[in-house]
Hints:
It is a single chain. The protein has one domain: ABC transporter involved in vitamin B12 uptake, BtuC (Orthogonal Bundle). It contains 13 helices and no strands. The protein has helices at 7-33, 43-77, 89-111, 115-137, 143-166, 170-180, 192-208, 210-216, 220-225, 230-252, 258-270, 275-299, 307-326.
Amino acid sequence: MSSFSSPRARYKYWLILGTLVLLGGLSAFGLLAYQNPMPVGSEVFWRIAHRRLDAVVAMAIVALCQAMATVAFHTVTNNRIITPSIMGFESLYVAINTATAYFFGVTGLLESRNLTMLILQISLMVGLSLILYSWLLSGKNNLHAMLLIGIVIGGGLGSLSTFMQRLLTPSEFDVLTARLFGSVNNADSSYYPVVLPLCLGAAAILYLLSRHLNVISLGREVATNLGLRYRGASISILILVSVLMAVSTALVGPMTFLGFLVATLAYQFSDTYDHRYIFPMAFVTAFTVVAGAYFLMNHVFYAQAVVSIIIELIGGCVFLAVLLRKGRL
């Protein structure tokens, strides 16, 4: 049985995927080679390109994490409006960095940019999600109640962060604000030995669970009748989503609407129910959006600092458009 409604839909899928791969590859090559002052192929050229490669790798990691986590989260929650950020990952990231600036000052905040702090942030974010999931497994509690608790926890952490930020000096607040903007400049190559295995491992397992996600998308009753352990499968997938979101947020910072933007585009481009095809489309779309945005802002408009703001602005507009069209959450 084909995953597409017609041969034309299959052709359209591969055509769009190939086009996005080409655009993403050109954007990545442009980031590595464009305005490189050294002759192409020289030792110094490759040294400069290697330094730029760290940023491109960070973009690929963020694209993979955000795309796959959001698509899987949409399927498990049966809602294509909400995003994994609703679980409070970004609020916890902001709270950790704000508390560091509040208790240890600017020096402590700058020195906290190390592998130990990254592991601590990932551990706390995944730990928070595991607490919520264990509560979900403890009885007859439902998924939507857990999501509501995640919203409340995120709101509480946000209020605590705002309180501490008001007590900071202007210079401390300025440094903190720069840290809280999602940017690939926050990533460091020393993080990759920890981040890459977590990202690739969780993404690979999610992809292998694509058939389970296809069944889950049919609804709890149908999935249960087909023999799927719905609750156990949902919890397993949500844990993988938590790992991906924790890695992305700890690596570069909050990217609230990136996942929603690329997932929405991937659904339109794929035109299929099969997650084996939706996942690759979402990842390639995410990488093309991020790499293309950084290339345009860095080398055309010379406004590197506003890249994440532009992505979030476009993603927020798409979110409002989808919400208004549906008329409900």
